[in-house]
Write a structure and sequence with these properties.
Order of helices and strands: EHEHEHEHEHEHHHEEE
Shape: globular
Strand order of the largest sheet: 3-2-1-4-5-6-7
Bound molecules: NADPH dihydro-nicotinamide-adenine-dinucleotide phosphate, 2-hydroxyethylsulfonic acid
Largest sheet: 7 strands, parallel
Number of strands: 9
Distance between the termini: 48 Å
Number of helices: 8
């Protein structure tokens, strides 16, 4: 029987690669993001692979938008097997004393509150069905704090805590929760972080081989494919050339 997954932030990077990987492996997909054109391009691609697709264009920072878009999914779309809470990112990289309130608000509203809003509307049905797997895109930044990472790290530490919280509260309902913590993955992440400065973004990945979005998609697919009695609670995945948040071997 085909399974259904919701992937937030599917318009680029890890979310997009995960949606494609899941479609290639027999999932139907609810894909979300704010960029409508990218969503429809991806929808077409997923349909060609053979998946049934529902594209929903909204901002996870607005609970009203989250509620009206995915709060009342009906028919087959109301029976979700996998929720990949991926939408998120970093904005800015500077000492906290020089930080931007606007960037802080965006990171907290997206990475923390957005993830909570989406979970809030989808988890009750999963609990009711006694079935479901929540995959949260945390980060190595959710485990360690690095210089100039301050608020992004705080938002991902919150994701780490939320993953643990869902796991405990939804335990009686057989819900799996996997917290994925990647190191450096080359996507649009750094372009967004540096407010469109592509040169600065590219420099982040110079001198070593970063992870790709496909590496993370493969890992997510592995986690959601395990037998019902097996759950990977927490998974840290790094480029071989990165030991932790602060140690890279660059050549
Ligand atoms: P990208 O910038 O490539 O993708 C981010 C995705 O999130 C886009 O699809 C974007 O869609 C979506 N998104 C951002 N803000 C919102 C919003 N307010 N409402 C709805 N969707 C939103 O980055 P990645 O693929 O690298 O990042 C995906 C996740 O992985 C993030 O949570 C990130 O923190 C995490 N991560 C990334 C790492 C990396 O090194 N790249 C490492 C560790 C974790 P749109 O703009 O269309 O709304
Ligand atoms: C993204 C990885 O190291 O830039 O979460 O925080 S890092």
């Amino acid at each position: 029987m085909r399974k259904t997954a919701v992937v937030t932030g599917a318009t680029s990077g890890i979310g997009q690669a995960t949606a494609i990987k899941l479609a290639e492996n027999g999932y139907d997909l609810v894909i979300t993001g704010r960029r409508a054109e990218r969503l429809s391009e991806l929808e077409e691609k997923l349909r060609k692979i053979g998946a049934d697709v529902l594209s929903l264009c909204f901002d996870v920072r607005s609970f009203e938008q989250v509620k009206s878009n995915i709060g009342n999914l009906s028919g087959k779309w109301s029976d979700i097997d996998v929720l990949v809470n991926n939408a998120g990112g970093a904005l800015g990289k500077e000492p906290i004393q020089d930080g931007s309130i606007e960037d802080w608000d965006t990171m907290i509203d997206t990475n923390v509150k957005g993830l909570l809003y989406v979970t809030k509307v989808l988890l009750p049905k999963m609990c009711q069905n006694h079935k479901g797997h929540v995959v949260n895109l945390c980060s190595i930044a959710g485990k360690q704090v690095y210089g100039e990472g301050n608020v992004y790290c705080a938002s991902k530490h919150a994701v780490n805590a939320i993953s643990k919280g869902i796991r405990i509260d939804a335990l009686p309902y057989g819900i799996k929760v996997t917290n994925i913590c990647p190191g450096a993955v080359e996507t649009e992440f750094s372009i967004v972080r540096f407010h469109g400065d592509e040169k600065k973004a590219a420099a982040t990945y110079q001198g070593f081989t970063p992870l790709t979005a496909n590496d993370i998609a493969d890992t997510i697919y592995y986690c959601v494919s395990l037998p019902p009695h097996v759950c990977i609670n927490d998974l840290t995945i790094m480029p071989t050339a990165q030991a932790d948040s602060g140690h890279f071997f660059k050549q």
